[in-house]
Design a protein that fits this description.
mainly beta; Elongation Factor Tu (Ef-tu), domain 3; 15-stranded mixed beta sheet; seven-stranded mixed beta sheet; 9 helices; 40 strands; EF-Tu_GTPase
Length: about 625
């Protein structure tokens, strides 16, 4: 049974050494074969190796474990995200000496996105003094467990202390059998299927002299057999499979979950590095994606409609424009025929949790997106030295859209305000001023309903009145008086031709939910308004009084009191630089337990600060801290 496992974590935590200690078969780019990796001493590319693991000590049935060694450096996170979509279990490797760092967050997030099966590996325990090693392991394990409590997926993840050793043998491995036992105990049998068209994720491509070109990768769905024709859409070619090989053994076929090498003829290896191989005509390029949004709790910035994010699907990363919208909570399925409501911005999850949100991603270039893809959206333009989580949100692919004008219906509630200028006839005909500019084509708005802000009576726009932008509104009953506010609410459909009146929509509840008079509006400023429709057209309130910064307790300071509290902590992640932190000296900081302290002083030059708690704090290393800006 093939089974893929990946050790994600930051630079120097010992991932590659761990892979070296576990592996019995080396494959593509294993153990930092890349010359630049050796020169720089860090992993630069995905590396693959494997070993076999019996299901029991006396069991002849074994699982073949493929290890995916991911880069740890912050600048290579695109490679890590690309590798996350092919794994069944994650090994979250943490340096026993450094413990929880701010960079741990992105690795934790990727592990949560990739798989529910995670083992935490506390590596380099041999660097603890032997006399205090047991105590130090217990102390660090408690710290890690406290950190994991913020994750519903990882709060019960096993923590396995090991030492993976090093390449030259100067440090011997410790407790590796315990890690193998933990992996076996938590091994699950992945659900594999050979049905459906082939989708094969290519991670490397290289020439084999006299033999052709070899693709290495993982079968995401379907199967591939010798003599099958496969399409390579990235280079616009179709090739016949000459042979297949799995870890140095020739095979006739490979199915979903298998890591396999595919040999082809007539393909220039320099034209293809990463991408997909598919059954011909089974998958097309797309530039518009829809997903249901799952926000990342550590991402501390707002996500605004119209902003650009980095979208990663498999090994492809491309910029995209975002449009957030909300729908009916009764269904989890996207329906292109339904009308959804525009959401201008999503606040950080720490400030407000917003449910039932979708996102339209308009990509800057077309990509291949298999139906079962997990889409990860990040802000990779953020400075890697700012110690901020760059992964914003993710979600499964809900739909691909060929044309946004016909493939998605998103409405934005707008509001215009005018004033009753005078009444005509018996008072049921009202002349309204300041609702439109004089150059506005009022035919577009004819027939839309308006409301008197004082009497709450609802009328209908009839026609222009003169050439100065005034209009007539018809009401069933008289009662309007000069100076009354007249409110026009409507839903404006996005992505439609600007000149067409069918962009405008109204529903009964736009006015029915209003049960208090609207104040007279002397300035009559045109603005976007929140919808009063709480049933058919819900609008999410995103305005907040304060902006929240989120950081972590890096260490405790001062003498610990008998009750276990400490007077000070060192906080990281609240600020990117010391200059930024200077402006917040004296600002209030709150723990998850609602303990209040204040920023007393800077701590170093990396944006860290010393936070003082007058009454002490029970916070521990890895706990969250919040600072609310006024």
């Amino acid at each position: 049974m093939p089974f893929s496992s990946s050790p994600p974590m930051w630079t120097d935590s010992g991932k590659t050494s761990l892979v070296r200690s576990l592996s019995t078969h080396l494959s593509t780019a294993a153990l930092d074969k890349n010359p630049q990796s050796k020169a720089r001493g860090i992993t630069l590319d995905l590396g693959f190796s494997s070993f076999t693991l019996p299901f029991a000590d006396d069991d002849t049935n074994v699982a073949q474990i493929t290890l995916v060694d991911c880069p740890g450096h912050a600048s290579l996170i695109k490679t890590v995200i690309g590798g996350a979509h092919i794994i069944d279990m994650a090994l979250l490797v943490i340096d026993a000496v450094k413990g929880i760092q701010m960079q741990t967050i992105e690795s934790t997030v990727l592990a949560e996105i990739a798989t529910p099966h995670v083992l935490v590996v506390l590596n380099k325990i041999d660097l603890y003094p032997e006399a205090t090693r047991e105590h130090d392991i217990l102390r660090m394990s408690r710290t890690i467990r406290q950190f994991l409590q913020s994750s519903p997926e990882l709060r019960d993840a096993p923590i396995v202390p090991v030492a993976s050793g090093d390449a030259d043998g100067t440090r011997a491995p410790l407790e590796m059998p315990a890690l193998l036992a933990a992996m076996r105990e938590h091994l699950h049998v992945p659900r594999r299927s050979a049905e459906g068209p082939l989708c094969y994720a290519i991670d490397h491509c290289f020439p084999l002299r006299g033999k052709g070109t070899v693709l290495t990768g993982t079968v995401l769905s379907g199967r591939v057999r010798v003599n099958d024709s496969i399409a390579l859409p990235m280079v616009g070619a179709e090739k016949k499979v000459k042979s297949l090989q799995m870890f140095h053994s020739n095979v006739d076929q490979a199915i979903q979950g298998d890591r396999v090498g595919i040999r082809l003829h007539g393909l220039d290896a320099s034209t293809l590095e990463r991408g997909l191989a598919i059954t011909p005509q089974s998958l097309g390029f797309t530039s518009n994606l829809v997903l249901r949004v799952h926000q990342i709790r550590f991402f501390s910035l707002a996500c605004a409609s119209g902003a650009k994010v980095h979208v990663t699907v498999g090994h492809a990363t491309v910029l995209a424009k975002t449009t957030f919208f909300t729908g009916d909570r009764a269904t989890d399925l996207f329906d292109a025929t339904r009308e959804y409501m525009y959401v201008p911005s999503l606040p950080p999850l720490q400030e407000k949790q917003v449910d039932d949100v979708w996102c339209l991603l308009q990509l800057e270039r077309e990509i291949l997106c298999p139906p079962s893809s997990q889409i990860v959206c990040s802000r990779l333009d953020t400075d890697v030295n700012k110690q901020l989580c760059r992964i914003a949100f993710y979600g499964p692919l809900a739909a691909t859209i060929e044309h946004v004008a016909t493939g998605v219906r998103i409405g934005k509630v707008k509001e215009r305000r005018g004033v009753v200028d005078k009444t005509l006839d018996d008072g049921d005909v009202v002349v309204v001023r300041d609702l439109f500019r004089k150059e506005t084509n009022l035919d577009i708005f004819r027939g839309l309903r308006v409301q008197n802000g004082r009497t709450l009576a609802v009328g209908t726009l009839d026609a222009a009145f003169g050439k100065t932008g005034k209009c007539r509104a018809l009401f069933d009953v008289a009662g309007a008086m000069p100076g009354d506010a007249i409110v026009l609410r409507f839903t404006k459909m996005l992505f439609q031709e600007k000149t067409l009146a069918h962009r405008l929509r109204q529903t009964k509840t736009l006015y029915e939910a209003v049960d208090t008079p609207v104040d007279n509006a002397d300035d009559c400023e045109r603005r976007q308004a929140p919808s009063s429709d709480a049933v058919l057209l819900p609008i999410i309130a995103v305005d907040v009084e304060k902006k929240c910064r989120v950081g972590l307790v890096e260490r405790l300071k001062g003498e610990t009191a008998p009750n276990g509290s400490n007077p000070m902590v060192i906080a990281t992640g609240l600020f990117a630089t010391a200059d930024e932190a200077t402006a917040f000296v004296g600002a209030e900081v709150v723990t998850d337990a609602n303990e209040h302290g204040h920023v007393e002083a800077l701590f170093g030059k990396a944006g860290k600060v010393r936070v003082v708690f007058e009454l002490g704090t029970m916070a521990r290393v890895g706990d969250q801290l919040k600072l609310f800006e006024k």
